[in-house]
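Table 4 source record.
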Amino acid sequence: MNKAIYIASNDANSGKSILTIGLMNALLRYKPSVGYFRPVIDDNSDRKKDNHINTILSYFSIDIEYEDAYGYSMSKLIKKWNNGKKDSILNKIISKYKKLEERFDFIIVEGSDFSDFSSIIELDLNILIAKNLGIPVIIISGALNKSVDEFVDSLHLTYDSFKLKDVNVIGVIANKVEEQNLLTIRENIKKLLPSAVIANAIPLHTKLKNPTMKELTEYIDADILFGSELLDRPTGGIEIGAMQLQHFLEHLTEDAVIVTPADREDILMGSLQANISSNYPSLAGIILSGNMELSKSVIKLIDGLDKVIPIVRVKEPTFNIASQLANVRSHIYSTNTEKIKISIDTFETHIDVDRLMEHLESFEASKLMTPRMFQYYLMKRAMQERKHIILPEGNDDRILIAASKLQELDIIDLTILGEITKVKSSVERLNIPFDFNKTPIINPNESDFLEDFTATLFELRKHKGISPATAEDLMRDVSYFGTMMVYKGLADGMVSGAAHTTQHTIRPALQFIKTKPGFSVVSSVFFMCLEDRVSVFGDCAINPNPTAEQLSDIAIASADSGIAFGIDAKVAMLSYSSGVSGQGEDVDTVKKATAIVKEKRPDLKVEGPIQYDAAVDPEIGKKKLPNSEVAGQASVLIFPDLNTGNNTYKAVQRETGALAIGPMLQGLNKPINDLSRGCSVDDIFNTVIITAIQAQE
C-alpha cells in the first residue's frame, strides 16, 4: 500500500500550499497520523525557519522537529551538486524521509519552490527525488497570466517528464485559473491524460493571491505604528494618496492599501474615517512614506480610536514604495488562519476529496528499486545487528580508505591484517581519518593466534596429507589467517581480493569453511544497480561451465539472495533462444536446469530458456513469451556460463554506468566475499556492507 504523496510543481507561482494544506486536512480525517517532509527548502538570509514547514507543523500540530522535516537548504544542495556529491544528497534525503515513514501512517512530501534553480534543472531535481523515494506524484501548476494553450501544453510536458523517468503521477491540478477558463482547462487536461489520472482545476481566489499587510510591511522593512493585531489581513489594490481628500475618497476599493506621505495627515485621517464608515469599503492598511513624524495631536487622536487598521511607516518616497509593493508575493503562514481556512475551503470545494483519498489508498506502492534506495536498504539492514568483518589486505590503499569511511558510519566492526607500521605510514600518507583503537591491525606473523590457527588447520587438512610445517606456512598467508578467524568465530565474515586472485581468496574457504548443506556448488551474484531497478546477476565470477544440476543450484541460491536483500525474485534462465525456438547442447542444459528449479522450488517464478532482451524488456517479453510471469520483468538473471556472465555484467556496468555491488559468494557456511582486483573504494565499502548482512542470516 502506498504511504506517501509527492507534491510537485513546474514553476515558482503554482500555489502548491493550497494543495499541501488541503491534503493534510483531508488525510487527517482518514489517517491516525500524517507526517510532512520537504527534501529541499529555500535559503533564509535572516535565518528564519522555512515558512512552509513552520505553517504545516504549527497549524496541524504535527510532532516533528524542524530539523527532521527537511533534507537540504538550496544553497547547500547546489554546492554539493556542483562538487559531484549527488549520491550523498540522495542518501541523506532518503534517510530522513524513511525515518519519518517509520513514525507516520502517511507522509506528504512537498517539492521545491523554483526560486533558485532554473526551472528545467529544478524540475529534474524533483523528478529524481520522487523517483528515489519511490512515491507517486501530484503535479500542480499555476495558470495565472498564461494563455490556455500555453498552460495546458506546459502541464502536459511536465507530466511526460515524470512518466519518462518511471515516476507514477496520480493527479494533475491546474491552480489560479481565471473563472472564464476553468471548464476549458479542466476538460483539456482530462483529454491529454490517462483516465486513471485525477485531473482538476482550482479557480483564482483573490484573498489567496494578494499578500497580507504583514508581508508588505516585512518586504519594505516598515515600522509598525498602529494595528499590529490586524497585520494578517489580506490586501487588495494599492492606492496612492496624493490628490485632495475629496477626490481621493472616490478611488477607495475593498481591502485597499493606502500609500501616502506622512505629512498628508488629511489623507491619513480621511482614510481612517472611511474605514469605519458604512458608506465606504473596508481598508487593509496605511503606509506612510517619507522621513517625517506624525504630529502629537494626530497620534493622540488615533490612540483614542476603538479599532485601528495597521498603520506603518517607511523613510523612502511614496512612489518608490508603491513600485516595490508590486513585487511582493503572497504566502500562507502559520498565524494567518484566515488564508489557511480559505485554502481548505477552496480545496474541498473544487477537488473530489473522497475520490482522491480512495486513489491514494488503493494505489500500489512503487516496486521500483533505485540504486540509492537499495543502498539505503543495505545500510538499514546492516544496522540491525552489528557484525565483525576481516579485511586481510591492509597493504592496499583502497582498503584503508574504505575502512575509514566505514569507521565514520560506525555500524560494522573491522579488523585489518597487515604490518602495523606500514599501515600507519599509509594512513598518514593518505591523510585520512583513522581510529586504530576502533579498528585493530593484526600481523599474522606476530599474532598470538598463529600457533592455535596452525594446529587447527593441520587437524582439518591432515587427511589431505598436509604437514604441520605446511600448515604454519599457509597460516602466515593473510587469506588463510583471515578465513580461520571467521571459522573460529573471531569474526563474522571476510572481504578480500583487491590484491589477490579469486582462487587465492576462496581456496581456504572451500577447504575448511565448506559449503552449506544442500549446496552442490559455491557461486556468486552481482547486484546490478541500474537507473530504475536492481537486478541480480549470477554466476559472473566463479563457475566456468556449470552442469544443469549446478546451474539449477546457482539459480535457486541467486533467487534466495535476491529475496534476502528485498528484491522480488523473478528468475530468468538465460540462453541464446527463448522458449522452444532453439536447439543444441547449451540450450538443453538451460532447459534441464529450469526444470530442476521448478521441481525443487515450485514457489519461485522461473522462466527458461529465455534471451536477455525478452527477460528485461516488457514489450519483447510479451511478444516472445506472452503467458510468462517472468518475461519482461525478470529481476534475477542466471547466465549459462562464466564467459557470458562475466562479460555481460561488465558490459552493462560500463555502457550504462550501473553500480555493480559484488561479487557476493553464496553457498558457503560463513560469508567470504571476493573483490575484483580493479575494484574501487565504493566497491569495497558496499561489499563489506553486504557481507555483514549475510552474516546476520
